[in-house]
TrEMBL record:
Pfam families: SBP_bac_11. It comes from the Bacteria. PANTHER family: BLR4797 PROTEIN (PTHR30632:SF11), MOLYBDATE-BINDING PERIPLASMIC PROTEIN (PTHR30632). Gene3D superfamilies: Periplasmic binding protein-like II (3.40.190.10). InterPro entries: ModA/WtpA. The lineage of its organism: Bacteria, Bacillati, Actinomycetota, Actinomycetes, Micrococcales. This is Molybdenum ABC transporter substrate-binding protein.
Length: 232
């Protein structure tokens, strides 16, 4: 069976798919690309059985008839975290696990940053919108650097291309050359629910639904936690 996903969930989906095979379910070949590209390929009619994207993107695909709306299933909740180069003098992660005490402190960090990295997809869109809502676009807009689709923000942080990077925590953990300050403060947190759905063009919708149900089952939660995802 074929599936497509955004890069943010590629590692957890690989482990979940392996667990599904061990449970006797069909093997899943997952193509992980930029979220925008994944949605466009499904919309173009490419042959897939399952698609895994941010829930908002799946709703749009369902509305257009590309995925079975009845099968859209929340799988994981992902938080956006903040990272700096490993040699940065920024303070370590706070005891509560956040990068900054509150939104006010984060705004000051944005003002002080020379270059700010952010990702494609819903989390990047939300960050840019938040900056605009704060009235900071004119002040920091020319310092915002969006990573190319499928390229992790961590790579730009490690290379020193940006000195403050925002991306899903699961995408930052374990990347070399960076130090994760923590997730965004609760008063300005950016959380994304990633979900799965059966593609309407699937040749095996029944089997696809069985695999999707396994990925959403309670037994799969430990694997998600290992990859720094929580339950929606």
């Amino acid at each position: 069976m074929r599936a497509i996903s955004s890069m943010a969930t590629r590692h957890v989906l690989a482990d979940l798919a392996a667990a599904a095979v061990e449970a006797g379910l069909p093997e899943l070949d997952i193509d992980s690309v930029g979220g925008v590209d994944a949605a466009e390929r499904v919309a173009a009619g490419e042959s897939f059985d399952l698609v895994f994207l941010a829930s908002g993107a799946l709703v749009k695909l369902a509305d257009a008839g590309h995925v079975d709306a009845a099968t859209v299933t929340p799988l994981v909740l992902s938080q956006v975290a903040v990272a700096v180069p490993s040699h940065s003098s920024e303070p370590a992660t706070r005891p509560e696990g956040t990068a900054f005490a509150d939104a006010a402190e984060l705004r000051e960090a944005l003002r002080s940053a020379t270059r700010i990295g952010y990702s494609t997809g819903p989390s990047g869109t939300a960050l840019v919108q938040m900056i605009d809502d704060w009235g900071l676009t004119d002040e920091v807009g020319d310092r915002l650097m969006q990573a190319k689709p499928g390229i992790p923000v961590a790579k730009s942080v490690a290379a020193g291309v940006v000195d403050l990077g925002f991306q899903q925590l699961s995408e930052l953990v374990g990347q070399p050359g960076i130090r994760i300050l923590g997730v965004m403060p609760s008063d300005c947190a950016i959380d994304t629910v990633f979900a799965g759905a059966v593609v309407t063009a699937s040749a095996s919708p029944g089997h696809a639904a069985e695999v999707l149900a396994f990925l959403a089952a309670e037994a799969a939660q430990p694997i998600k936690a290992e990859h720094n995802f929580s339950t929606p």
